[in-house]
Amino acid sequence: MKVKGKYEYDYTAVNLKRDVVKRFGKLSRKLSKPQSETLDAMIDFFEWHGFSPFDKMEHSLLIELLKNRKRTEAVIALMKDIEKHQTKPTIAMIQALFAEVEPIKKPRLIEKTPEEFKAQFENKKTDL
Questions:
Q1: 33-42: b or e for each residue (b if 16 or more CB lie within 10 Å)?
Q2: Under 8 Å between Cβ of 38 and 31
Q3: DSSP sequence for 49-116
Q4: What does pTM read for this prediction?
Q5: Which of 27, 65, 67, 104 gets the highest tally of CB atoms within 10 A of its CB?
């Protein structure tokens, strides 16, 4: 529903204390967001993280930190395992492939005596 060039969604009234409305208005201006978006973001935050505004945050935050630490340690263990079983053996194989090994040097031309040279050609003539 569009009224005098305003938004296209309907408004509903909520009864709040005057000081709460003032505090919420200050928070919305501080965040540079409309009040509806600010309230929506706050609700999303509490739902996403599983917090209740009436719970003691110390306990909830501690639990979340411990969960996060366990996840971080699991990721570190996974990375170490990948390094140990995949990266290091692969690097070792690549280094072995590209390691400088001196080739066995064979003389390209072997000097033959004149008798060996003549015998080589005589053998070819008899094979034909």
A1: eeeeebeeee
A2: yes
A3: HT--TTS-HHHHHHHHHHHHHHHHHHHHHHHHHHIIIIIHHHHHHHHHHHS--PPPP--SS----HHH
A4: 0.39
A5: 27
Residue 124 zone, left/alpha/beta (φ > 0; ψ -120 to 50; rest): alpha
- pLDDT digits over 73-106, tens only? 888 999 988 888 888 888 888 888 887 666 677 7
- The CA distances from residue 46 to 54, 55, 60, 65, 81, in Å, are 11, 11, 12, 16, 36
Placement of tokens 């004149």 in the chain: 114
Q: Computed from CA positions of residues 79, 82, 88, 93, in that sequence, does the dihedral angle turn out positive or negative?
A: negative
The DSSP result for 2-38, as a single string, is --TT--SS--------HHHHHHHHHHHHHHTS-HHHH
Distance between CA 122 and CA 115 in Å, rounded? 11
